[in-house]
Amino acid sequence: MENVNIHKTAVIHPGAQLSSGVSVGPYSVVEGDVSLGDNVRIGSHCFITGQTTIGRNCKIYTGAVIGSAPQDKKHSADDNVFLNIGENNVIREYVTINPGTVEGGSKTVVGSGNLIMAYSHIAHDCVVGNNCIMANGATLGGHVTLEDNAMIGGLSAVHQFVRLGRLAIVGGCSKVVQDVPPFSTCDGHPAKVITTNVVGLRRAQIPEETINRLKKAFKILFHSGLSKTTALERIAKEIDSCPEIEHLIFFAKTSERGLCR
């Protein structure tokens, strides 16, 4: 352990793996099965536990609890479950993230470059992609999937087993009970698709031609009155293919909870 900075009041289990440049603040606890990558910064009063791996350059702020037991009645203290967190994540104050459950595949995964704002919760067996944003108090139930660049507004709750597609954005205080299509803006209680996420698409440097194709696809899928199957067939027939259109079609076809409409 080179250049490791541990505050004198922090408690570090001798079995924990701390890489170069790790910093642990006052009164924080790092337990024995935890592995911290290079330059991980842990603030004060944090609790890092379980079979948890945190990638390099992550910043974890005051009071976060990372790796504590899943909030699932079927979970046993003897279950062999994991939490894998990627690189360059910012995890703000009092965030909670749980590992997986045996029934759910034993693993919760958080990708890289995410911003998880204060008081947010990521439950067991979730899969969070890269460059996602969860605003203050956003909550993911178990088995939720966030594709890359998804955004969730503050105080929004996502029901278990729901998926949020790539570059989708959910407005604050929303109740999300069905899958949110990629490239969409969604809001409400329960949440409904409002329009395409044009601002997010442009920020992601998606070409205007592709954005216009997605707008046409959304009109067919959500405003034509057609069934999902018929609408997807019409999209495939009438709109020139591109990766974004193909992903929208695939996401809709594979939805098990149904789409926010």
In short:
The protein is of the alpha/beta class.
What does this molecule look like?
The protein is α/β, with parallel strands linked by helices and 261 residues long. The chain has two domains: 5-146, UDP N-Acetylglucosamine Acyltransferase, domain 1; 207-253, Udp N-acetylglucosamine O-acyltransferase, Domain 2 (Up-down Bundle). The protein contains four helices and 28 strands. It has helices at residues 198-203, 208-223, 228-238, 243-253, and strands at residues 5-6, 11-12, 17-18, 23-24, 29-30, 35-36, 41-42, 47-48, 51-54, 59-60, 65-66, 82-85, 90-91, 96-97, 107-110, 115-116, 121-122, 127-128, 133-134, 139-140, 145-146, 151-152, 157-158, 163-164, 169-170, 175-176, 184-188, 191-196. The strands form three sheets. The chain has an eleven-stranded mixed sheet. Helix 3 packs antiparallel against helix 4. The termini are far apart.
Which helices and strands occur, and which strands form pairs?
Blueprint: E1 5-6, E2 11-12, E3 17-18, E4 23-24, E5 29-30, E6 35-36, E7 41-42, E8 47-48, E9 51-54, E10 59-60, E11 65-66, E12 82-85, E13 90-91, E14 96-97, E15 107-110, E16 115-116, E17 121-122, E18 127-128, E19 133-134, E20 139-140, E21 145-146, E22 151-152, E23 157-158, E24 163-164, E25 169-170, E26 175-176, E27 184-188, E28 191-196, H1 198-203, H2 208-223, H3 228-238, H4 243-253
Parallel strand pairs: 1-4, 2-5, 3-6, 4-7, 5-8, 6-9, 7-10, 8-11, 9-12, 10-13, 11-14, 12-15, 13-16, 14-17, 15-18, 16-19, 17-20, 18-21, 19-22, 20-23, 21-24, 22-25, 23-26, 25-27
Antiparallel strand pairs: 27-28
Helix pairs in contact: 2-3, 3-4
